[in-house]
Amino acid sequence: MEAVVTKGNNEAELSDGLRTFGAVLKVLREEANLTQEEFAVRVQYSVPYIAKIEQGKRFPPSDLLTRAEEPLGPVAIKVLTGAAKSLTRRPGLAHRFREWAGIEEDAVSLCAYECRAIPGLLQPESYMRAVFNGQLPPPDEEQVERNVAARLDRQQIFSARQNTAFTFVIEQCVLERRLGGGEVTKQVIDHLLAVGARRNVEIQIMPLIQEDHAGIDGLMYLAETPAHQWLGYTEGQRSSNLISAPKDVSVLLQCYGKLRSQALDCRATVELLEDMRGAL
């Protein structure tokens, strides 16, 4: 899962727009004599999230302008609104994933069901490289390095958000595929066991044979915001969806709850992973 940045014109325009918006936000914040920490408190977002918006690494949330009006003032908001127009010209897959990455960073709960690949937050570097090197059209070496660095950066969330509850349901077939070869699969299993040992992370494997299965419609990601609103994210071939309608998110939550009940529990998952590791 997770959109991968490519070198198309859409992405180039969006990257330039993100950097411009971030630079403008930083100038306006400094003009208001606010540090990043002070501004983050006023707009109710985390300091790392604001820092990444200013660096052009994260897509600003839709309500940032509303929240920023009080600390920055109406004139500053008009300037920011102008800068934001460059972010909405050509919204593509990477655009939507940047929105999700921002939601993910501030979430108090994160849930994932994956049937295609190991979730990006759980991938060791060797698996990332296998994923990126297998893409079409083939990315150049510089792009692979950028994508790997970005994904490793996202994984810092486990250390930065120790009060966030993470749950993952992963299809066993994803591991049985042995993407990248046996050695990479060993590293994946070792990494899953290590991350799954964290007190705020639960990883469950969905067994190969499961006659009652709620995941037929494909992968799903769910996040609970600090305001306790649930949002969803899904992906398909060259497409993605950020889901906020309560009735639609409710369906995803019901499906995810069912999936967790059908998957192996955490202890049985550890036993299966250890057996698979020993068989490699």
UniProtKB/TrEMBL annotation:
GO terms for molecular function: DNA binding. InterPro entries: Cro/C1-type_HTH, DUF5753, Lambda_DNA-bd_dom_sf. Residues 25-65 form the HTH cro/C1-type domain. Gene3D superfamilies: lambda repressor-like DNA-binding domains (1.10.260.40). CDD domains: HTH_XRE (cd00093). This is Helix-turn-helix domain-containing protein. The lineage of its organism: Bacteria, Bacillati, Actinomycetota, Actinomycetes, Kitasatosporales.
